[in-house]
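Need tokens for this chain, all 226 residues.
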Amino acid sequence: MVLTILFDFDGVLVDSIEIFSEAVNVAGRKLKQPVAFVPDDLRNIKRMSIAEIVEAANVDPSLSQEFVVEIDRALFDRYEQIQLFPEIARVVQQLREVAKLGIVSATSVAVLQRVLEHQGIKQHFDEIVGGDVPGTKAQKIQRIILKNGSDQSKSCMIGDTVSDMEQGKAAGVVTIAVSWGWHAIEWIRIVQPDYEAHQPQDLIDITRQHLLPNHLTPNSLKHMVN
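Here are the structure tokens for all 226 residues:
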């Protein structure tokens, strides 16, 4: 049975909260809206929906679609500034040895691919699904799991927000909350993720101890070291 490991992007793989906040402000100015956004505005949005971001940014709801497009453009233009968290490249490379990897994010596919290519890790991901792909995050997770022929109970969604955990649970997969992202881990604990990761290495440890099939021996994991 193929193991599938899915990642959110912003706040999990990349440290993008400052750049995203800047992109919101750029989009607001383009649309002549009174936007003055800071990272804490993002940290205080519970489910990271477009409607919530529009409201927090004080943007006219009738401009929501244009607002999202302009945010994506601003992010695309700043792709070189979006950096991986330390150790993430190593962890992704190691997990790729034992699982199919994917990204399910609200960020557009174009931005995801551009950043991943620039950071040199795009080749490790079998599926890259952005917010411009139809469906809820749970539906996208389920589609990838079905395509891979994976067991839902042994596949996982790694996220940094309440909504990531809610959508992972709705999709029937294991949920792993990281504490280095946009939402405080104390907030995410309210929705009871299955596991918590406080440093990237924890993702390897959780995979090794809880997700891998029993027939894999310690020798199969010799590359998954600190």
